[in-house]
Design goal:
The protein has 340 residues and is α/β, with parallel strands linked by helices. The protein is built from nine helices and nine strands. The chain folds into two domains: 112 residues; 225 residues, Alpha-Beta Barrel (TIM Barrel), CATH 3.20.20.370. It is 49% helix and 10% strand.
Length: 340
């Protein structure tokens, strides 16, 4: 509109000196005003279209701004994906560094405790625990609704599980050794051999060890009536819960012997599963259940709380021997309760 005002002033000057040109001047002014209105209209349409394109569905004259608005998320998508990928890689590197640091500490502990090799680090446990079923040949009548009996856990990971039975030997060196080496294990306890020192197993529990049921007095269960079996199993459930604050969900029958009554009694007082074993560890040798005399992914290894009075070695000697076997075969020890 500034251009219109300038021309109007010039026309006024010319009108004074050149009356004959008045008609042409008026026409020129009207033409310029019309052009100015057209420019203003186009500018207004673009302004309205821009607002519509940014806040609405992009109809009308907002075609240009709509393309710009939709292009921004398109450009941000790859950027977000790159950031997520970078964060994932950074997390993986951080986890690897943590594992390496833990393994370095474990190597120091392995030398201290005179292990032949540093134990391997276990992989992360599964997000979903595998489905446990009774091993073929270990079934009982009506067993479909009873706790499963198994000797290994279904997994493809090269892990095995260390379990220790009864509780007769209470070696403080075992607690220190396993804590420093970060080797997980599970304890299946009988009250008649732990009742002289419940505190020892409280210390064990405080170190992350789960305490499970191995009956009150370690009898041959199939030789007992259902009621007596229930007393042995459920009585120990109550003892462990009272002493250690948690009712066990795993039960191991003495000598690995059971019948349908055993499993019914165990289920009646909260037992969810009955892990047996595929091999047994001693300070100087291994005994194998399987024909190939070897470890397999998910195998459960049994040993006992024993000392030099009954063994050719101590509990730490047993750990040194079994860990050499496990590590030499490329396996790591994982926590049974992470899988069952």
């Amino acid at each position: 509109m500034q251009l219109v005002r300038q021309n109007e002033e010039k026309v006024a000057e010319r009108r004074k000196g050149h009356p004959g040109r008045r008609a042409r001047a008026v026409v020129a002014v009207l033409l310029i005003a019309a052009l100015g209105s057209a420019c203003a209209g186009e500018s207004g349409d673009r302004g309205g279209g821009d607002r519509g394109g940014r806040s609405g569905d992009g109809g009308g004259g907002g075609g240009g701004p709509v393309e710009s608005a939709t292009a921004t998320p398109g450009r941000a998508g790859p950027d977000a994906a790159k950031k997520a990928d970078a964060a994932k890689k950074a997390g993986a590197k951080k986890a690897e560094a943590a594992v390496a640091k833990a393994q370095a500490r474990r190597a120091v502990a392995a030398r201290k405790w005179k292990l032949a090799k540093t134990p391997l680090a276990a992989p992360p446990p599964p997000a979903v625990k595998p489905r446990i079923t009774t091993r073929k040949g270990f079934e009982v009548t009506g067993g479909a609704t009873l706790p499963p009996v198994f000797t290994s856990v279904p997994t493809k990971q090269k892990v095995v599980f260390l379990t220790i039975d009864d509780g007769a030997e209470k070696d403080p060196e075992l607690l220190r050794m396993m804590t420093e080496l970060k080797i997980p294990y599970s304890a299946f306890l009988s009250d008649y051999v732990i009742n002289d020192d419940y505190a020892y197993f409280k210390k064990m529990q405080a170190r992350g060890v789960s305490l499970h049921n191995h009956t009150l007095t370690h009898p041959y269960l199939p030789g007992l009536s259902y009621e007596k079996q229930k007393r042995e199993i459920c009585g120990q459930q109550e003892k462990i819960e009272k002493r250690y604050g948690k009712r066990p969900e795993l039960f191991r029958p003495p000598y690995g012997n059971y019948n349908a009554g055993t499993l019914r009694a165990a289920k009646s007082c909260g037992v969810k599963a009955v892990p047996l074993w595929s091999s047994e560890a001693f300070p100087d040798h291994m005994e194998w259940r399987e024909w190939d005399r070897d470890l397999h992914p998910g195998d459960i290894v049994l040993t006992h709380f024993r000392g030099k009075d009954e063994w050719k070695g101590s509990m730490p000697d047993m750990i040194r021997h079994v860990m050499k076997t496990i590590t030499d075969k490329g396996y790591a020890v994982a926590k049974l309760e992470d899988y069952v």
